[in-house]
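Appendix C reproduces, verbatim, an entry submitted by the partner laboratory led by Prof. M.T., so that reviewers can inspect both the input and the predicted structure.
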Amino acid sequence: MGAATLSPAERTRREKIEKYRAFAKSLEDNIEAMIRQRRWQWVYTAISLVVGAVGWKWSRLFAGGAVATGVGCSLTGLYLSYVRAAHYRVELDKTLEEIETLEGDAPR
């Protein structure tokens, strides 16, 4: 069927499918971004350990504070990225189910 011969309900259904597909794509991009962010959190942890080792020469308090702050911030960042990625995966699953439902409702 051409676009001009579609019923209003069919046109609305197709628009919804396209919107859900675009949303699913953005969720996939967000999941990838969370994975990239996790990699950086490990780099930040390593940097804090290096700063702590170098700072040990001048002040043990500085070194301990640098390591504690770096590790604490990195663990917080890792936790948040894992939780957000898990949330995005749940939303992606729901979105894909909705797309399947809408495509299954297509008139034959």
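Residues 8-103 form one domain. Additional entries are available on request from the coordinating office.
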